[in-house]
Amino acid sequence: MAAFAAAMAIAGVAATGIEQNPLALVAEGAIAGLVIFAVTTTAVAGVVSITTSRNFFATHRADFAWLLPHYVALGLVAGALSAVYGQLGVAGLVALTIPLLLSRYSIKQVVDKTRDNVLRLEKSNQQLRSAYIEIRDMSEELRDAYTGTLESLVAALDMRDQETRGHSNRVANHSVELARLLGLNDEEELTMIYRGALMHDVGKIGVPDAILRKPGPLTDDEWLFMRKHPTMGYRILAQVPYLRPAARVVLAHHERWDGDGYPRRLKGEAIPLGARIFALADTYDAIVSDRPYRDGKSPDEALKEILRCAGSQFDPKVVEAFEAVFPGWRDEKDGHGASPLYLPAWRRRNDAPGRATG
Hints:
Blueprint: H1 2-16, H2 22-52, H3 56-63, H4 68-160, H5 167-181, H6 187-198, H7 209-212, H8 220-226, H9 229-237, H10 244-252, H11 273-288, H12 299-308, H13 316-333, H14 345-350
Helix pairs in contact: 1-2, 1-4, 2-3, 2-4, 5-6, 5-11, 5-13, 6-10, 9-10, 10-11, 11-12, 11-13, 12-13
């Protein structure tokens, strides 16, 4: 368009042979740009509005109004070229045009290079996305394998100690419920507490059956050996990378708030929070569950015992959380409720309806 306007202006200057005011030529170029804009965009907008049944003015404003500054600018360039030709002739016109052409060529190279880079980045992004999806799927499969290992270990514990069957699952679910009430919402931390509670007695694998299944009281030596199971459990889980964070709960699950626990006699907040939570859930389940040598006590009796031990055996804040959830736990014991099943977020996705299980 600029070349057309410039050519017309130059032709007019050459034909008349009259030297015109350069500013007038520039102004005429701008006017020519406005006229060309009005004619071309009006015609095209009219055709578009007729063929698409759109409002003409809305079509022109939305699709063509943004071109106005470009037409005016190109008209000014055309007028300037005419003025240069009128003042300096062909030589001046060529001298001005060559830098403009070189500039346009440089800009075109930049645009082309940018477009190529964008296309390469889009391709790389697609490849990265495909790799991410593949890695995510592999990660979920690996987590499923980890979960299978975890469940197998728990099943092995249940087979060795029949009298506590189901204890680990109940305590794990209760521990997560208490953790949520205490404000722990990080999925990784909840999973760590869940796994630690589920595997808290894994160290009993190293305890002989003669001690583990002994129907009567343990001797001092037997009790001393039994007290090693948190350390043995920690050593077992610490060898497995995905269970290593949970191993801290296992190691400290027999510590007491007053520092009179074992194996390290930790006190107060030096005990990991997950272990403090677990200790209460474990004690509650032990009190209300039946054993071969005694019947389980009522939930209300368990509540009184735990309240009595607040500040000595248990973290007072955890006891407060327990009081809040106690009505639901009491209903479980009475058969009116169900243990709150906890599953990590990734496992809930895997078990969602409609997901292929393979």
